[in-house]
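Aim 2 progress update. The chain analyzed this quarter is reproduced below.
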Amino acid sequence: MDKMPKWADVILTPLISLILAMGISALVILAIGESPWTALTTMVDGALGSSYGWGFTLYYATNFIFTGLAVMVAYHAALFNIGGEGQAAMGGLGVALVLLYLPLPHWALALPVAMLGAAAFGAAWAFIPAWLQAKRGSHIVITTIMFNFIAAAVLSYVLVNLLRPVGSMDPASARFPAETALPRLSELAAWVGIAWGRNTPVNITFLVAVLACVLVWVLIWRTRLGYEIRALGKSERGAVYAGINPVRITIVAMLISGGLAGMMAINNVMGESGRLVLNAVEGAGFIGIAVALMGRNHPFGIFLAALLFGFLYQGGGELALWTSIPRELIVVIQALVILFTGALDNMVRMPLERLFLALRRSGGQAR
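Predicted structure tokens:
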């Protein structure tokens, strides 16, 4: 029997962790002589108070959905993939090569082809760490960390020496053809008669990310492959006894994980920049770890956690712009959320488990 109800684990635990993180953040803001209430209202208004704020919040959330799902799939196979940063960077390279060298006359054709390119390059970058883990016993955490740095070096070389237009000093590729530009949500809203307001970078990739949440849920909980991934994650010996090949499942899970991380590039490279630039990922691969942990490695939880971190990113930017609170403090607030929802999860979970066990016992005695 579970120590506490599933709803409490999925909703109550991260909610209390979030409240604790916000409480500590409020104390830090007070300590530097600023008003926590002003900071909160500024963040809420900047991130959620207008279609402009929502646009940026959803744009950031889209990135975090893909990287969070990537961490989640690997986690269910007992693999801690922290190489999403490098896999997303390689996904961007896949998008750039597809859009620059294939004649794609319309975004509706370019989008699925670019998705394949992004997923293929992200999965390929995850393959070597997966193979080393499955065949040689190399720890997946170490190898994926190393491959983040290798990806940054490879991307820098390719942009500077191969994809940079002649005469340009900017380490970036040429701009993608105009006909491959993805429609923004503001344009989609206008098509159905909804006034979105000022144009923002959120684009149709947000809908792709939502669809990815649904498909990953189906994969993990409604398919044989998903059962094999979860079985391996629970017990390798049990999985082997059931006839599951741990080498195959380890590699397949990491390929799916890397492909999901790579697909983030559809949003930031194809949808927002319109070209491949250095540091296009901007830390989203690492934020995906916190999103997956806070979302309890479930697609719906990851969707909600991605919205929260999108709010923190956009609201934090507005806070730094309109108040005297330094931008470094925004990083502190984000770190506190990660700390309480990830590293200090048991600090909230264990008292809640004791509380629900006590309530269950008292209920049984009353009967």
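DSSP finds 16 helices and no strands in the chain. The first helix runs from residue 6 to 31. These observations will guide the mutagenesis experiments scheduled for the next reporting period.
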